[in-house]
Amino acid sequence: KVILGIETSCDETAVSLVEDGRKVLISLLSSQVDLHRIYGGVVPEIASRRHLELIFPLLDEAFRNFPKEKIAAVAVTYGPGLVGALLVGLSVAKSLSYALNVPLIGVNHMEGHIFANFLEDAKPVFPALVLVVSGGHTDLIFMRGFGDYELLGETIDDAAGECFDKVGRVLNLPYPAGPVIDRLSKKGKPIYKFPVARLKEEGYNFSFSGLKTAVRVFREKNPDAKVEDIAASFQEALVRALVENTEKALRDYKPAKLYLAGGVAANSKLREEFLNLGKTYNIPVHFPSLQYCTDNAAMIAAAGYHRYLLGKFAPLNLNAYPSLMLGEERY
Ligand code: ATP
Ligand code: MG
Ligand code: FE
C-alpha cells in the first residue's frame, strides 16, 4: 500500500510516497529557510503563503512517476505546528482524499519524527526509550509499542534545537544554526565550561535557557575567543545534559532499545554519544539517516501507514491543532 504523506507544519513544504511504511518511493522537500533567514526565524504569515505556492508543484512532481489513482490513503500533519501552515497541507490533503476517494489520515508531527526511525530500522524493539530533540521539542519518551507513549521528561524552557538557533544568533551564525555549530565544533575544542542547569526536582526534565545566557555573557566578556571553541564548548554542554537524563532513564526503565528523533538527532556529537550509551548499557541504538531527522514527509507517510493498518481514518472536517500532544487523538 502506498501512502501519500504531506507535511507543512513549519517552514518545510514536503510530500512523499512511501510503500508499506518503509519503502520510500519519493521524498520531496522545499525548504523555506532562505526566505526566513533574514528574520532569524520562521515568520508564520510568510510560511503559510509559501506553502501554498510550493505544494502543488511538489505534488505534480511526485505524481509524475506514480499515478495518484494508485495511492491507498493521504496522510497529513494536523499538529503540532503553526496553524496557518498546517491548514495549507490539511486543505490539500482533504481535497485529494475526497477527489481520489481514499481515506484521510491525520498524523502527529512528533510521532512522525519518531517514525522516521522505522523507515529504516528493520527490527523495532519495545519497550524503547526515545529522545525527541527538535526545533520546538525536547521530549524523553518511554515507548511501549507503536502509538503507546509515556512522556518521562521535557524541557521547562527552550527546546534543544531552539537553543542551538539562539546561540547561533549570539555567535552571528546563519539560521538555522544547528548544522553550522555542528560543523564549527569539529574545528574547535570544548575548552570552556558552560553550566547546564541541574533541576532539583526528581525526574527527567531539561532546561536550556541558562546555557544560552551563559554563552551570551561569555561572548560579551571574551570577544576574542575563537567561535569554533565556543561552539564546541556549547555543543558539549548541551549534549551532556541530553545524555545525562537519557542515561538516568536507561537505568530506571531498562528499555530494550534506544532511539533518537527530530532535527537535533542529526547532530554528530549527540549521535556519537548515543552509540556510546548503547555500548555501555549493551542495548541497540537507532537514529534516522540525516535526511529524515529534520522535517520531511516520508516520516509522515510512515506514521500514516501505521494508522492506516489500524483503520484510524479522519473525517473531512478534521481541524489543525497547533499544540497537539504526542499520543493525543483529536478524531
Ligand atoms: P518541531 O519538530 O518541534 O515542531 P521543527 O520541525 O522546526 O520543530 P526540526 O525540523 O525537527 O524542528 O529540527 C530543526 C532544528 O534542528 C533546528 O533548530 C536546527 O538548528 C536543528 N538541527 C538541524 N541539524 C542539526 C545539527 N546537525 N546539530 C544540531 N541541531 C541541528
Ligand atoms: Mg524546519
Ligand atoms: Fe519537526
UniProtKB/TrEMBL annotation:
Coiled-coil spans in chain: none
Entry GO CC: cytoplasm
Record-listed Fe cation binding positions: 109, 113, 295
Cofactors: Fe(2+)
Record SUPFAM superfamilies: Actin-like ATPase domain
GO biological process: tRNA threonylcarbamoyladenosine modification
Signal sequence, renumbered to the chain: none
Positions bound to substrate: 132-136, 165, 178, 182, 267
GO molecular function terms listed in the Swiss-Prot or TrEMBL record: iron ion binding; tRNA N(6)-L-threonylcarbamoyladenine synthase activity
Keyword GTP-binding in record: no
InterPro entries: ATPase_NBD, Gcp-like_dom, KAE1/TsaD, Peptidase_M22_CS, TsaD
Role: Required for the formation of a threonylcarbamoyl group on adenosine at position 37 (t(6)A37) in tRNAs that read codons beginning with adenine. Is involved in the transfer of the threonylcarbamoyl moiety of threonylcarbamoyl-AMP (TC-AMP) to the N6 group of A37, together with TsaE and TsaB. TsaD likely plays a direct catalytic role in this reaction.
Stated name of the protein: tRNA N6-adenosine threonylcarbamoyltransferase
The organism of origin for this protein: Carboxydothermus islandicus
UniProt gene name: tsaD
